[in-house]
Amino acid sequence: MKNRNLRAPLAVLPLAILALSSHAQTSATSTATELPETVVTATRSAIPVADVVADVSIIDREQIERSGANGLADVLSRVPGITVTRNGGPASTTSVYLRGAETRFTAVFVDGVRVDSQSTGGASWNAIPLAQVERIEVLRGPAAAIYGSDALAGVVQIFTRQGEAGFFPSVHVGVGTHNTRDMSVSLRGGQDAVSYALGLSGERSDGFNAKLSGNPDRDGYRSHSVSGRLGWKLAPGHELEATLLDSEQKAGYDGFLPSQDDQGQQDLRTLGLSWSAAWSDTWKTRVGVTRGTDRYETTPSPYLTNTRIDTYLLRNEWRMGTATLSADLERREDRLTNGSTTPEQNDRDQNALALGYTLRHGAHTLQLNARHDEDSEFGGQSTGGAAYAFAFTPAWRATLSAGTAFRVPTLFQRFSLYGTPDLKAETARNFETGLRYQSGHDRAGFTLYRNEVKNLIDYVSGPGTCANGVGEFAGCYGNTGRARYTGVTLSGGTRVGTVNLGASLDLMRPKDQETGLRLARRAQTQATLTADTQLASWTLGGEVQHVGSRFNDAANTQRLPAYSLLNLTASTALTPDWKLQVRVDNLSDKAYESVLGYATAGRTLYVGLNWSPR
């Protein structure tokens, strides 16, 4: 493979960023005027941003378009506390580590629909199309007392386009390196009691050779998706809403046979139907029924796995002055279709009762949550959370919180060829404190956290007790011990003249408590530096992303070197309706690996054209 490792010391990169006027950070370090007025993820209901105690980042559509990012993972990699790894290009297996925790420890929702794989554990990030995304909310810290199983490290909520009064069409076309081509169409509008949104997108790329050894072919991909949202105001205070996302992606990958053209097809679908009712100024009800499916199939090597998650939610909220009380009844049904499991082992359900209380009184904000889940396999799991914020000046605010969380083993971890039926649920305890400052263009944030996980599940090599007890890949899943995720997140920004500056720094220590070693593929240091400015009719920008060294394996014998990337963007309005976007990623053409043995893209160029009539 060509050596593209043109080293750029981290100390020089900030100067390069400022000189090149890099773009605004797609995270909580964005200017306050860009933040939405409300956030949903912190409490499961829309509340003012000023009332949020949790550590939350919000990315809106304007920020996504300005970033020029190719995929959802590229956007998330710029958010404080998140590290992303890939087995190759944008369509390959993607892992998202929130505060250093395993990818399965982040609960993921698309328009309120839970998406998860009961075979791999966690969401299929590469299958969620960025072209359909309107907004992303990232909640750092455990939230099982609100959402139940899976939210040990946090929650990511993804919202597709939604309608509004009028008619707003838009079209995007783009081309890039590796013969990448994409196109998307969006139609949004509404009249009287009806609102609607429809989005269509497609993308193709020849890709690059993902595996550094083995089959030296290009691992290209193609994908297409559709999203829809329909809202109907039945009466004042009563609204019915239906949502749909259907994404299909086919990508090449390098398997065990060097001459074989392996293909993987990922199909992700979400369906949601909800009814919201405001019975009075103090009482609201929401009823929701959702289904999320995740299907993955490979050819010519035969493999098929399909996960379906159905949820039913009844939520009531009562407002009492400056306090709000909520009560949720929720049922979740998981089903897995996989060749390694039998029909008798393919499903389970969880029934839950959750209570929430929030209070805003002067400078004080309090949030309390408690939840009990009754699992058909594991019995009862109770979780709780408490968070407090004190605004000791209009600009300064201090926070303190604690919470517990859990994740039940996947059906694949228990009943597949590699499964262990008597696995225990993974549980967590988290403590954190923070300090935030916001005044005009100046902002700063500090968060210190410690999250301890027990009964950590991992694949254990060796004879074991499962059916896969012999052969080259003998082993099975087991509760291997404990992990501790500690760290500090610093973020901030200001405006100097016409230049907006932003930065974030994560100092993390993801540690295996049994061995004392660092958890695999987790960096201890990661930073992002950003800026943007206006030059004539152009918005010029760029960013530096630095990820510290990591170990590819649990034994800490395979070191992955640190790397720093410089990305540049430029955009201009050609006419009031037409906008040109240009992005260069990895300007120094640096060769690096986020997973040992798998290549990453070198220098890439992308040019996009947007039509959005005013």
From TrEMBL:
Pfam families: Plug, TonB_dep_Rec_b-barrel. InterPro entries: Beta-barrel_TonB (IPR000531), Beta-barrel_TonB_sf (IPR036942), Plug_dom (IPR012910), Plug_dom_sf (IPR037066), TonB-dep_rcpt-like (IPR039426). It is found in: Cell outer membrane. One of its GO terms (cellular component) is cell outer membrane. Belongs to the TonB-dependent receptor family. PANTHER family: COLICIN I RECEPTOR-RELATED, TONB-DEPENDENT OUTER MEMBRANE RECEPTOR. This is TonB-dependent receptor. It comes from Hydrogenophaga aromaticivorans.
